[in-house]
Design a protein that fits this description.
about 140 residues, alpha/beta, Rossmann fold, 7-stranded parallel β-sheet, about 35% helix, globular, transmembrane, Oligosacch_biosynth_Alg14, transmembrane helix
Length: about 140
């Protein structure tokens, strides 16, 4: 089973790496933001904020190519907006998608997490207080 892991560089990337270490899979493919000088990533997207909608939409063709090329069983993202974009590409291509909101978001789901609720197969929070019908709490993953 191939899993496509996606996160912006920095804290999101650190959390994604920790999560990936906990999962047994035949193959893991990583996507991060360009300019991050990250040797672990196989594919890159330009970094942008979820509020910079046009910048993100211009990268949708690249995100679709990444998902098609890697052909994952599951796409997992810890954020931020570039991860959300790849999750959306996975949704369009009918792949299973999982959003894991950052442990830093203890009072409210991130903006990207709130958008992910609209199309991700599963959205996880790491805080029991934030669990809802659409957002599950399974414990602290990271």
């Amino acid at each position: 089973m191939r899993i496509l892991y996606v996160a912006s560089f920095g804290g999101h990337w650190v959390q994604l790496q920790r999560l990936a270490e906990l999962v047994e899979t035949d193959e893991a493919v990583f996507v991060s933001t360009s300019g991050s000088h990250n040797d672990a990533a196989s594919h890159y997207l330009d970094d942008f904020s979820v509020r910079e909608l046009w910048t993100g939409l211009r990268q949708l063709p690249r995100a679709l190519r990444i998902v098609r090329h890697s052909d994952p069983y599951l796409i997992v993202s810890t954020g931020a907006a570039p991860g959300l974009l790849v999750l959306f590409a996975g949704f369009v291509l009918r792949r299973k998608t999982l959003w894991v909101d950052s442990i830093a978001n203890s009072r409210r789901l991130s903006l990207s997490g709130r958008v992910a609720k609209l199309f991700a197969n599963q959205v996880l929070t790491q805080w029991p207080e934030l669990e809802t019908r659409r957002v599950r709490y399974l414990g602290r993953l990271l």
